[in-house]
Amino acid sequence: MSSFYGVELKSRLLLGTSRYPSPAILERAVKASGAEVVTVSLRRESGAGKAGQAFWSLIQSMGVRVLPNTAGCHSVKEAVTTAHMARELFDTPWIKLEVIGEADTLQPDVFGLVEAARILSEDGFEVFPYTTEDLVVAERLVEAGCRVLMPWGAPIGSARGLNNVYGLRSMRAHFPGIPLVVDAGLGVPSHAAAAMELGYDAVLLNTAVAEAGDPVEMARAFALGVEAGRAAYLAQPMEPRDMAVPSTPVIGKAALGD
Amino acid sequence: MRIFLNDDMHEVSPGTLAAALETLGFGGRKIATAVNGRFVAAAARPRTELADGDRIEVVAPMQGG
């Protein structure tokens, strides 16, 4: 079990709720994934619109915990205001903090991220910062009050997997006591398994499931990938080496050559 | 007076944010609000007086990753 701000989760897969073909498929995918936490967002709604209310009813019916995000925010002020709105709307101190700094890669603005994380942590929020694998930034986030770190695997929605395995491994080694979640960029379950084999506590993904040909089956596949990766990490994988070592003993082999 | 709600202009009687939201169809809805970029908690809406030209943001739960 991993603890996120004192909340113990059995599932190490956190799932986004966006881009599914239908609400019914979203519901089935969440169930198939075993996720106990889903990410949600906030968007403008008109007086006549009912989409937000319908979506909220669906989420409530699933019995999952929500992690609201500040997706699309490009400034500290925007992110902080959005976080306050989310806290009231979803009645949770949890916030997945995104401060986007670059349009093509959706790379976090880590300077704004640290500033927003400090403001929100001091205000009682429990911040899940979407960050890079930069160790110095991560240190600043912890100093700002973050007790979970969420480095990207690759740019959001890119399905590229773990772009910087060395950086992610370094982060795991550097923060043994902080829950770490690979957030974003995963495409297939083997990417999730690889993150878990590095010792990460969980993965957070959305598009890889939502835009699969069969989102429900892909959700199940990711759950298996996460479970396999975690089991492998706990089983302590052998170290890679350069030369072959025969797995079958040589002693006692029949002498059949010339 | 004129206010802007999610960028759309509306004519409303002078009054509070809560009254304007009621008039514009948001009564009883699960929403969060900000006025001129500042968060306004639900409990504060009845005592938040609007001024001509105020920009109101109204958001609701939505799918997110």
Automatic annotation (TrEMBL), chain B:
Entry superkingdom: Bacteria
A Pfam family: ThiS
Gene3D superfamilies (UniProt xref): 3.10.20.30
NCBIfam families referenced in this protein's UniProt entry, alphabetically: thiS
Protein name: Sulfur carrier protein ThiS
Organism of this sequence: Reyranella humidisoli
